[in-house]
């Protein structure tokens, strides 16, 4: 990030840090409108806290690492590549793989489908979609 971008991100971080404690909690992140209305918002926060957080909190440095993952282009450091295609795919995969067994089973797929379509589709139709999806793999 450029210095100006870091300043803007820090301002955003401080705005989200309503208690002025130097870190964000899952509750702070869930009040972000784009996260709050996202049917996978809670899953997103779970992955963020699992990958970047400590004690269900993220500080500004961790916040920056998180945002760096979604920047265009490749960011390399002596430690790791932050935003490779693989790291982005791993992040998304982790949103589905709730039990961290490195595979997405029928139950996990059903859970995500239910979150995404809500009450718009009957459960048996969702189950059929999940079964067809798993059958194609």
Structure description:
It is a single chain. This protein has 8 helices and 2 strands. The mean pLDDT is 86. Helix 4 packs across helix 6 and helix 7 packs across helix 8. The longest helix is centred in the N-terminal third of the chain and has 14 residues. The chain has a two-stranded antiparallel sheet. By secondary structure, it is mostly helical. The chain has a domain of 76 residues: EF-hand (Recoverin, domain 1), CATH 1.10.238.10.
- The best one-word shape is elongated
The CATH topology label of the domain at 1-76 is: Recoverin, domain 1
CATH C-level of the domain at 1-76: Mainly Alpha
Question: Can you tell me the CATH superfamily of the domain at 1-76?
Answer: EF-hand
Q: What's the helical proportion of residues?
A: 55-70%
Q: Which parts are unreliable, with pLDDT below 50 for 5 consecutive residues or more?
A: none
Biggest pleated-sheet summary: 2 strands, antiparallel
| CATH-scheme architecture of the domain at 1-76 | Orthogonal Bundle
Strand order of the largest sheet: 1-2
Round the Cα radius of gyration to an integer and report it: 17 Å
Structural class: mainly alpha
Number of strands: 2
**Helix-strand string:** HEHHHEHHHH
Number of helices: 8
Keywords: Calcium, Cell membrane, Cytoplasm, Lipoprotein, Membrane, Metal-binding, Myristate, Nucleus, Phosphoprotein, Protein transport, Repeat, Transport
Family: Belongs to the calcineurin regulatory subunit family. CHP subfamily.
GO molecular function: calcium ion binding
Subcellular location: Cell membrane; Cytoplasm; Nucleus
